[in-house]
Amino acid sequence: MDLKNLQKRTQELKQLLDPKRTEREKKEEKKKAMSRGLAIGAFLGGLAGVFFAPDKGENTRRKTKEELEKIKENLQTEIVEGKEKLGVNLAEGKEKLTDIYEENKEIITEKFTTLKEKVKGQPEPNVATEEELEVDQEELAKEEA
Fold first, then answer.
1. Residues of 44-75 as b/e, b for ≥16 C-beta within 10 angstroms?
2. Closest CA to 97 of 14, 10, 24, 12
3. How many structural domains comprise the chain?
4. Contact residues for 60 (Cβ-Cβ < 8 A; gap 6+)
């Protein structure tokens, strides 16, 4: 199984386990985009206001420094909030997975036991060794030639 199929199946399983997950992810992406947009807009607006205002160079530099400090504080606040939200989301996800596992633990165990018993009664699978496969490939090559 290649990586793309594995990732696709993982996403499908996540969707089955938590149907509202994609909806939450979309909301989070919108919030992130909005925050980025606000930060960039504030930065550009501040710069435009500073540079288009008729003022002395010293005052312009002071205002620019103040605006950059505000932007820095906003970004630091956004980063801290993002880390907190990530921690909360991870904790909630872990809790949900644990709950789902606990709810379905008996069913999974029963099905596994049933399958294990069915397999016990079966004869050993017919598995070819590497040497046998090489011989078969050589024979096929001879037949095709």
1. eebeeebeeeeeeeeeeeebeeebeeebeeee
2. 14
3. 1
4. 50, 51, 53
In the chain, the N- to C-terminal Cα span, in Å, equals: 32
What does the pLDDT look like over 88-127, one tens digit per residue? 888 888 888 888 888 888 888 888 888 888 777 766 666 6
Domain around 87: 3-144
Maximum distance among all Cα pairs of the chain, rounded to whole angstroms: 91
Angstrom distance (rounded) from CA 118 to CA 114: 6
Tokens 């921690």 belong to residue: 87
**Which amino acid type is present at position 53?**
A
Alpha helices in 53-144 (DSSP H): 57-121, 130-144
d(CA 72, CA 67): 9
> How far apart, in Å, are the Cα atoms of 125 and each of 66, 111, 121, 122, 128?
74, 21, 12, 8, 9
Place of tokens 């435009």: 48
Q: Is the pLDDT of residue 19 over 80?
A: no
Two structure tokens written together for 30: 């919108």
